TrEMBL record, chain A:
Keywords: ATP-binding, Nucleotide-binding, Transport. Residues 7-237 form the ABC transporter domain. Pfam families: ABC_tran (PF00005). This is ATP-binding cassette domain-containing protein.
Automatic annotation (TrEMBL), chain B:
It is a multi-pass membrane protein. It is found in: Cell membrane. One of its GO terms (molecular function) is branched-chain amino acid transmembrane transporter activity. Pfam families: BPD_transp_2. The keyword Transmembrane applies. The keyword Cell membrane applies. One of its GO terms (cellular component) is plasma membrane. This is Branched-chain amino acid ABC transporter permease. Keywords: Cell membrane, Membrane, Transmembrane, Transmembrane helix. It comes from Thalassovita mangrovi. The chain crosses the membrane at residues 33-53, 65-82, 88-107, 114-131, 178-201, 222-239, 296-316.
């Protein structure tokens, strides 16, 4: 008997009224795999993530984590099973400091003292020590993205979902994000949604292209970038990034 | 470091306040002591809403449900037990059980914030009507007649624990009530500084994020709601101890609205704010009431509008901001980050 994949979706579908935002997606991710998920605006990438994390319930189909069906589970239950997400719109605790944001995330699994140490470690890793005592609500968008990535890391998930982690970052920050993702990937599986093709080239091995809620193509990065269908999809929608 | 310092300051203030409570009867006449007693009981009630609304993000329009249940539970138990100690326990226990049931239904049932407000309001109205219709000999719990709209008179007030014969004097009752307010305040401060407190603030700030980190927001909200119910119920016992009387008007809408006004004026998201708001407004109502020339409700309404428009954060946060703007910049930055969460 083979071990089941880390994550597997079958016929995963969600409809909002007439719109089928995610349409019968069969997706599979191995342990410690790094996958890029691309597709034009409105392709259903963020919605797909919401289905994986329990923020939305599928209309049809299933999500399995290590073979166990988690479709219909609540967000906190899925989080406890080791799935962490950085959402597209920053989801942070605005009235708390950077340090406290990370501490709360780490505290779920650890004692207060250990959580402080872990938060400290991640602050250093993400070079956030200088703003550790700043209130997150007062930070710039790019910095809040970092804080949210830090929060996700502090939760020590085994599968990390990053929804447009490089958006609004400077070129230098984008490169650092790419490095960080590769570093995280040594131990953990990731799915990264991104528009920036330069960024994708820096990190990607296998790329899944989503178009109108369905998987258009799933290949290695070079093949995907040369595929005429991918170019059509992006040009058709007017690729801005 | 900052947290420790803030807690130390709070403790020193509490000790000073406690000394003031104990010393007050030597300097103030009995009439004023009696007034301070009811003010302090109401301030405990204000803290209950200040906690669940300011820190848990739960706006209950029916905090009087728990206050009234606590008051009636105390009254019935005190009459039956002939001793106040167990009655005070009942005044906390019954509202907590009620808050657990009501809260479970609302919070695990996924009721939205607005409807939570509507439901809590409705529940307090239902309790008012229920208790209001309990006149007559039929409605008795043990020796205690509920009395319907007439209320329950001559309820035994606090006695020395273990000595039902030793009834506390009004001065002693004041000391107990004043100290109870301080203990509840410090207790909440400690709670908010604990992991539980950090988590409920996190949930207030961003429920989705908290859930995505593995915290079940429903569980924490329910606990918060129950703690609020416990404190409000305890305030009910303190209130009955002051007046030796309780009637269904304790559930009335007017009081529910006042609690919300106290919190708004004093400052939501702090603990000292609701206490200040409550003491200030009650003192004003008493002062205005004494004159008879002005309508108290009209003045209260006017004050509320002025606050909402000019001091929207409430007294305590505004004062903190003012003080901070006078401190050196570097210091005020760190103070700022903690103050919003801690104060
Ligand atoms: N809650 C919702 N209600 C209705 N439509 C939605 C909702 N969420 C997403 N959609 C629609 O689903 C489609 C996919 O959206 P989204 O997943 O955000 O795309 P992407 O992240 O790939 O840009 C879009 O057409 C969007 O308008
Ligand atoms: Mg998106």
């Amino acid at each position: 008997m083979t071990t089941p994949p880390l994550l597997e979706t079958s016929n995963l579908t969600i409809r909002f009224g007439g719109v089928t935002a995610v349409n019968s997606v069969d997706f599979s991710l191995k342990e410690t795999e790094l996958r890029c998920l691309i597709g034009p605006n409105g392709a259903g990438k963020s919605t797909f993530f919401k289905l994986l994390t329990g923020q939305l319930r599928p209309s049809e189909g299933h999500v399995k984590l290590r073979g166990e069906d988690i479709s219909g589970s609540l967000p906190h239950e899925i989080a406890r099973r080791g799935v962490g997400i950085k959402t597209q719109v920053p989801n942070v605790f605005n009235a708390m400091t950077v340090e406290e944001n990370l501490w709360i995330a780490a505290r779920h699994k650890h004692t207060p003292a250990f959580a402080s140490d872990l938060a400290e470690e991640i602050l250093t890793q993400l070079r956030l020590t200088g703003i550790a005592k700043r209130e997150v609500g007062q930070l710039a968008h790019g910095q809040r993205q970092w804080v949210e990535i830090g929060t996700v890391l502090a939760g020590e998930p085994e599968l990390i979902l990053l929804d447009e982690p490089a958006a609004g970052m400077t070129h230098e920050e984008v490169e650092r994000t790419a490095e960080l993702i590769l570093e995280i990937n040594r131990k953990r599986a990731l799915i990264v949604v991104e528009h920036d093709m330069q960024f994708i080239k820096m990190i990607a091995k296998t790329v899944t292209v989503l178009h109108q809620g369905s998987v258009l193509i799933e290949e290695d990065v070079a093949t995907v970038l040369q595929d005429p269908r991918v170019r059509d999809v992006y040009l058709g929608k007017g690729l801005a990034a | 470091m900052q947290k420790l310092n803030e807690m130390r300051v709070a403790l020193i203030c509490a000790v000073i306040a406690a000394a003031g409570v104990i010393a007050a009867p030597y300097y103030i006449d009995l009439f004023q002591i009696m007034q301070l007693t009811v003010f302090a009981a109401m301030a405990v009630l204000a803290l209950s809403l200040g906690f669940i609304w300011g820190y848990g993000g739960i706006l209950s329009f029916g905090q009087t449900s728990f206050f009234g249940l606590g008051a009636y539970a105390y009254a019935v138990a005190a009459i039956n037990f002939g001793d106040s100690t167990g009655a005070i326990v009942m005044a906390i226990l019954i509202p907590v059980i009620f808050a657990a049931l009501l809260g479970y239904f609302m919070i695990y049932g996924g009721v939205s914030d607005v409807y939570l407000g509507v439901i809590t309001l409705t529940v307090s109205l239902i309790l008012f009507n229920l208790v209001n219709s309990t006149a007559g000999d039929f409605y008795k719990i043990g020796d205690a007649r509920l009395g319907g709209f007439n209320g329950m008179p001559a309820i035994p007030t606090f006695n020395m624990p273990g000595d039902p014969g030793y009834i506390l004097s009004p001065e002693q009752a004041w000391t107990v009530t004043g100290l109870a307010l301080i203990v509840v305040y410090i207790g909440l401060r400690v709670l908010i500084a604990s992991t539980f407190g950090r988590i409920i603030i996190a949930i207030r700030e961003n429920e989705t994020r908290a859930a995505l980190l593995g915290y079940d927001p429903r569980f924490y909200k329910l606990l918060t709601f129950m703690i609020g119910g416990a404190i409000a119920g305890f305030a009910g016992a303190l209130y009955v101890n002051w007046g030796a009387f309780v009637s269904p008007t304790i559930f009335a809408l007017g009081l529910s609205a006042q609690i919300i006004i106290w919190v708004i004026i004093g400052g939501r998201g702090t603990l000292i704010g609701p206490v200040i708001g409550c003491l200030l407004m009650q003192w004003m109502v008493t002062a205005i009431g004494g004159q008879q020339a002005l309508d108290a409700n009209f003045i209260l309404g006017a004050i509320l509008i002025v606050f909402v428009l000019l001091v929207p954060k409430g007294i305590a946060p505004t004062v903190v901001d003012l003080v901070k703007s006078r401190l050196p910049k570097a210091k005020s930055d760190t103070a700022n980050s903690n103050a919003k969460v801690k104060a």
